[in-house]
Design a protein that fits this description.
The complex is a heterodimer of chains A (282) and B (579).
Chain A: H1 8-31, H2 36-61, E1 67-70, H3 80-88, H4 98-116, H5 130-135, E2 145-146, E3 163-168, E4 179-183, E5 201-205, E6 217-219, E7 224-226, E8 233-235, E9 241-244, E10 256-258, E11 264-266
Antiparallel strand pairs in A: 2-3, 3-4, 4-5, 6-7, 7-8, 8-9, 10-11
Helix pairs in contact in A: 1-2
Chain B: H1 2-14, H2 17-24, E1 27-28, H3 36-55, E2 64-66, E3 78-80, H4 81-91, H5 96-123, H6 132-154, H7 159-173, H8 179-187, H9 196-226, E4 240-245, H10 246-271, H11 277-280, H12 296-307, E5 313-315, E6 318-320, H13 324-349, H14 365-384, H15 387-394, H16 398-429, H17 440-448, H18 454-461, E7 477-484, E8 487-494, E9 499-503, H19 510-520, E10 526-528, H20 539-572
Parallel strand pairs in B: 7-10
Antiparallel strand pairs in B: 1-4, 2-3, 5-6, 7-8, 8-9
Classes of the chains: A alpha+beta (282), B alpha+beta (579).
Transmembrane segments (chain A): 12-32, 38-57, 100-119
GO molecular function (chain A): 2 iron, 2 sulfur cluster binding; metal ion binding; monooxygenase activity; oxidoreductase activity, acting on paired donors, with incorporation or reduction of molecular oxygen
Domain Rieske (chain A): 164-265
C-alpha cells in the first residue's frame, strides 16, 4: 500500500461523514413528519458525499490510466467456424432431417398463430366494433342537454359571450359526447351551422377534429374556438369550419330543439363522428 | 479471515478465480463520453428503486374514489382511484412526493442520457462492425424508454396527461385500415375506457421494464464480449484497449458516478417541482388546460403535429387524417432510419472491416452532415411544441410563429447539415486542428473537394475482411517483459513518444505474457528486461514527488536563510571571537 498523499485521506473521510450526516438528516426529517425539500436535500447530500468520497478515492489513491488489455479480435480462429458447423450438422443431426423439420415448423407456426388469437380478448368485451363505437355517441333524439353538474338546460341558460359545455343526460363521462352550446347573432352566419340553430343558439362537438382535444378556448367576439393542444381554430359563424392550425374538418353540429318541458334536447346524433378522423370515417 | 475462507470455498466449487482475475483487470478507456451510457443505466436503477416504492401506494384503477387528505382543494371530491391515489401519494404519504418527483426526474434524465449516448455513438462511428447488433439493441431500448415514459406519465389520470393520451390515441386511429382496431385493442374500448389505466400500469411496471432489463443485460454482455472501442491515441491500436482497470479504478469511479446521478436526481426530486397533477386536476373528457406541453422526449412528436398543415387525403372514399404523417410516418421513419443507419452507411462506404478505434466526428463529413441536419430538424420540432408559449412571450400571433417554424423546419436542417458537412471536410482535409483554427482557404478547399481523398477510399476497399493493421513505423517502440516474483509482466514502450503502458494483468509464464503483448501490439519487437523498470510517475507519485521537491526547496531556503543570518549575526557582534 503506497502512503496516501497528505490530505487525501482526510478529504475522503470528511466526504463519507457528510454522507452519513445527510442520511441521518433524512431519517430525522422523515421521523419529524417529513418535508419534501429537506428530504430531497438530505438524500442528495448523502449521495453526493458518497460520490465525492468514492471519486477522490478513485482518482487519488488508485492507479488511473496507463493500462492496456489485448483485444483478440472477433474474427473466429481459422477452421473454428467450420468445426462448429460440422458439429451442428453431424450425420444424425436433427437439422439434416428436412422433412421432420418442415413438419415441426408447421406445428410451431400453427401454435404461434393460435397463441395470437387470445389477443382478440383485449378488444372491448361487449364486442362493439371500433368503427361503430367511434361513429356513435350517446346523443340520440330526445336526450336532454345537461351541464357538467347534471342540470338540464333551457335556451335562456345559455348566455351571450361565452360557451357552455353540455353533455347528454346520464352520460357525463362518455369520451365522445362532450359538446358546447353558444349563442351567436344569426345575422353574422356566413354559412348555416351544420346542426341548425335556435335563434342563434348552436351546439357543436367539443372535440377537435385534429387529435380530439377539447376546444375549450373561446375567442370572444370573433366567434372562434381554439384548441389548446395544437392551436386549431374553428369559425362558428362559418359552420365551425377550421380556419387555422392542423385541423381539416369542421366541428360536427348537434341538432337541437326545445322539448315540451322547456329544456333543450337533441333531435339526432352529431352531424358527423366527433373528434379525430379515422380510416372508415364517412 | 472468514471472508477469505468463504471465497476459497466458493472458488473450490465454482472455479471462479480465472474469470475473476480477468474481469477485475478489464480495461475501460478513459474518456468522459464513455460514461453517458452509464448515466442512463444508473437512472434506470433509480427508476426501478423509486418505482417499486410508488407501486405500494398507486392504485391503477379508474373506479370512482373520494379523496380525503391534506390537499384541501380536492378534499372530498370524487375522482378516479388512480388520480386520488396519486394526490394522496404526493400529499399524505411521507416522502411520497420526493420519491414520485425523483422517479419522474429519473425518467427525464434516463431518456436524455440515452439520447446523448446515441449521439456520441453515432458521431464517433461506434456502431460500425462489429457493434451493429448492439446499436440495434440500443435503438430498441430507446423506443421502449419513450413508450414507458409515456405510459408512466399517463397513469395518474390527470387532465394534462389525459389530453396527451387522447392525442396518442387519435394518432393511432389515424393509421389506415387498422388504426381504430389497434386503438381498441390497446384500450379495450373507446377512449377513455375503464381498462385503460390498468393496462397502462401493467405495461409500465411489468412488461416494458422486464424487456428493458433483458435488453440492458444483452447490451452490457455484448460490450464485455466485444470490449470497448476507444479513440485513437498513442499506444492504441485496433487490437487493444488502453485505459484504467475495472478494479480498483473503475469500480470506485463507477460507484461514484452512480452516487452522483442519484444525488442529482434526489436534489431535483426534492427541489424542482415536476408534474404537479393536483394543479392540473383530474381528467375529464370535456376539460383542457393551456398551455399544454408533454415531457421533453415526446415534444418532437407534438411539435410535428402542430407544424404539419391541415392536409387530409381520401383513398377510395377512406380517410387518411392529418395526424397520420406527422404522428405515425415521421416517428416511424425516424426509428427505421436509426435502425438502418449502420447498414446504409456500410452500403455506401463498402467498409466491412472491424473497427475498434473510433472516428473523430470530422473524419466522416457525410455522417456529420446527416447527423447535424437530423438533430436540427428534431430541435425545431421541439421548439414548435412550444409555439403557443413563444407566441405569448413575443406577443405575436401563434399562427405567425407557426408559419415561420414551418419554413424553418425545412430550411434550417439543410443549412446546418451543409455547414457541418463543409466544416468537417475542411477539418479533415485541411491543416487546422480545431474549429477555431480554420481559415478561409481550408473552407474553400473543402468546397472544391468533390470526392474523398484517394487514400481514404483505397484503404477501405483493400483487405475487406482483415482488421486494419496500423503501419508500424515507429522505431522506438518495443515490448518489455520481466519476471516479478512468480509471475510475468509486460509493458509497451514508445521511448521517443514518452509513452509506457502496462499490461493489465500478470501472466503465469513468459509465454503467456508474450502472447498477450503480441496480440495487443502485433509486430512490435519484444525484449526481456531484468527487473521491473522504474514506473513512470503516476498522478499520486507526481504529487508525492512535487511535494518532496517543494519540501526540499523549502528546507534548502530555510537552511540558506539560517546560515546567512548566522553569518550576519556573527559579523554584527564584534565582541565575539571569530571562529
Amino acid at each position: 500500500m503506497t502512503p496516501a498523499p497528505p490530505g487525501v485521506n482526510r478529504r475522503i473521510v470528511c466526504s463519507f461523514l457528510v454522507s452519513a450526516a445527510g442520511a441521518t438528516g433524512f431519517a430525522v426529517t422523515y421521523g419529524l413528519g417529513g418535508q419534501t425539500q429537506w428530504e430531497g436535500v438530505c438524500l442528495a447530500v448523502a449521495f453526493a458525499g458518497l460520490a465525492s468520497g468514492l471519486a477522490i478515492w478513485g482518482r487519488r489513491l488508485v492507479p488511473t490510466g496507463g493500462y492496456v488489455e489485448e483485444h483478440e479480435g472477433l474474427t473466429p480462429p481459422l477452421g473454428e467456424q467450420a468445426m462448429a458447423g460440422d458439429a451442428l450438422a453431424a450425420p444424425d443431426s436433427p437439422i439434416r432431417r428436412r422433412g421432420l423439420l418442415g413438419a415441426l415448423a408447421l406445428a410451431l407456426t400453427a401454435l404461434g398463430a393460435a397463441a395470437l388469437f387470445p389477443l382478440r380478448s383485449l378488444l372491448p368485451w361487449d364486442r362493439t366494433r371500433p368503427v361503430e363505437a367511434l361513429k356513435d355517441t350517446p346523443w340520440r333524439p330526445g336526450v336532454r342537454l345537461v351541464t357538467a353538474d347534471g342540470r338540464p338546460l333551457r335556451p335562456a341558460d345559455v348566455p351571450t359571450g361565452t360557451v357552455v359545455a353540455v353533455f347528454p343526460e346520464g352520460d357525463l363521462d362518455a369520451g365522445d359526447a362532450p359538446a358546447f352550446a353558444v349563442r351567436l347573432q344569426p345575422e353574422r352566419f356566413t354559412r348555416p351551422p351544420a346542426g341548425g340553430h335556435l335563434d342563434g343558439l348552436v351546439v357543436h362537438s367539443l372535440l377537435c377534429t385534429h387529435a380530439g382535444c377539447p376546444v375549450r378556448l373561446y375567442l370572444h367576439g370573433t366567434g372562434r374556438v381554439l384548441c389548446p393542444c395544437h392551436q386549431s381554430s374553428f369559425d362558428l359563424f362559418a359552420g365551425a369550419e377550421p380556419v387555422a392550425g392542423p385541423a381539416a374538418r369542421p366541428l360536427p353540429g348537434l341538432p337541437i330543439e326545445v322539448g315540451p318541458d322547456g329544456f333543450l334536447r337533441a333531435t339526432a346524433d352529431f352531424t358527423a363522428p366527433p373528434g379525430a378522423g379515422f380510416w372508415s370515417r364517412p | 479471515m472468514i471472508l477469505d475462507r468463504l471465497a476459497r470455498g466458493v472458488d473450490d466449487r465454482l472455479r471462479l478465480s480465472p474469470i475473476t482475475r480477468k474481469a477485475l483487470a478489464k480495461v475501460f478507456p478513459d474518456h468522459w463520453s464513455f460514461m453517458l451510457g452509464e448515466i442512463a443505466l444508473y437512472s434506470f436503477i433509480a427508476l426501478i428503486l423509486t418505482g417499486v416504492y410508488l407501486t405500494f401506494f398507486f392504485e391503477a384503477s379508474s373506479a370512482d374514489r373520494v379523496y380525503h387528505g391534506s390537499y384541501a382543494p380536492l378534499d372530498g371530491s370524487t375522482t378516479s382511484a388512480a388520480y386520488a391515489s396519486t394526490v394522496r401519494l404526493s400529499w399524505d404519504v411521507r416522502a411520497g412526493l420526493l420519491i414520485r418527483q425523483t422517479h419522474h426526474w429519473a425518467a427525464v434524465v434516463f431518456v436524455a442520457a440515452i439520447v446523448v449516448h446515441l449521439i456520441r455513438i453515432f458521431f464517433t462511428g461506434a456502431f460500425r462492425k462489429p457493434r451493429e447488433l448492439n446499436w440495434l439493441v440500443g435503438v430498441t431500448m430507446l423506443t421502449l424508454a419513450l413508450a414507458n415514459g409515456f405510459t408512466g406519465y399517463s397513469m395518474p389520470d390527470d387532465l394534462l396527461s389525459g389530453m396527451g393520451l387522447r392525442i396518442i390515441v387519435s394518432v393511432v386511429e389515424s393509421i389506415p385500415v387498422v388504426g381504430a382496431w389497434l386503438a381498441f385493442l390497446a384500450l379495450g374500448g373507446e377512449f377513455p375506457s375503464d381498462e385503460m389505466i390498468p393496462r397502462l400500469f401493467v405495461s409500465h411496471v411489468l412488461l416494458v421494464p422486464a424487456v428493458l432489463v433483458a435488453l440492458i443485460s444483452v447490451h452490457l454482455a455484448m460490450v464485455v464480449r466485444q470490449k470497448h472501442s476507444q479513440f485513437p491515441g498513442p499506444g492504441r491500436t485496433e487490437h487493444n484497449v488502453v485505459g484504467s482497470r475495472f478494479w480498483p479504478s473503475y469500480t470506485l469511479r463507477s460507484l461514484a458516478l452512480f452516487a452522483w446521478v442519484v444525488a442529482v436526481l434526489f436534489a431535483l426530486g426534492g427541489l424542482v417541482q415536476i408534474n404537479p397533477v393536483w394543479l392540473y386536476g383530474p381528467f375529464s373528457p370535456a376539460e383542457a388546460t393551456s398551455p399544454a406541453q408533454p415531457d421533453w422526449y415526446v415534444t418532437w412528436g407534438d411539435g410535428a403535429l402542430r407544424l404539419f398543415p391541415a392536409w387530409e387525403l381520401r383513398i377510395g372514399g377512406y380517410l387518411v387524417p392529418s395526424p397520420f404523417i406527422p404522428g405515425v410516418v415521421i416517428g416511424g421513419v425516424t426509428f427505421l432510419a436509426l435502425y438502418a443507419w449502420p447498414f446504409l452507411e456500410r452500403l455506401r462506404t463498402r467498409d466491412r472491416r472491424q473497427h475498434h478505434l473510433l472516428d473523430r466526428p470530422r473524419d466522416h463529413p457525410v455522417r456529420m452532415g446527416v447527423g447535424v441536419a437530423a438533430l436540427t430538424f428534431y430541435a425545431v420540432l421541439v421548439v414548435a411544441a412550444g409555439d403557443d408559449i413563444i407566441a405569448r412571450l413575443l406577443r405575436v400571433s401563434v399562427y405567425d410563429v407557426l408559419s415561420v417554424l414551418r419554413v424553418v423546419v425545412l430550411v434550417l436542417p439543410l443549412l446546418t447539415g451543409t455547414l457541418a458537412f463543409l466544416l468537417a471536410r475542411a477539418l479533415s482535409h485541411g491543416d487546422a486542428a480545431r474549429l477555431g483554427e480554420l481559415t478561409r482557404a481550408d473552407l474553400a478547399k473543402a468546397r472544391d473537394v468533390h470526392r474523398p481523398p484517394a487514400g481514404h477510399r483505397a484503404r477501405k476497399t483493400a483487405e475487406v475482411d482483415e482488421p486494419e493493421r496500423p503501419a508500424r513505423d515507429r522505431p522506438g517502440e518495443r515490448i518489455e517483459l520481466w519476471p516479478e516474483g512468480e509471475v510475468w509482466r509486460w509493458r509497451y514502450r514508445d521511448a521517443p513518444g514518452g509513452v509506457a503502458i502496462l499490461g493489465n494483468r500478470a501472466a503465469s509464464t513468459e509465454q503467456e505474457a508474450a502472447s498477450a503483448a503480441q496480440l495487443a501490439y502485433p509486430g512490435v519487437d519484444r525484449v526481456v528486461v531484468p527487473g521491473p523498470p522504474a514506473r513512470p510517475p503516476g498522478k499520486v507519485r507526481a504529487v508525492l514527488r512535487r511535494g518532496a521537491n517543494a519540501a526540499m526547496g523549502v528546507s534548502l531556503l530555510v537552511a540558506a536563510l539560517r546560515q546567512r543570518r548566522a553569518r550576519r549575526s556573527g559579523s554584527d557582534r564584534p565582541g565575539e571571537p571569530p571562529r
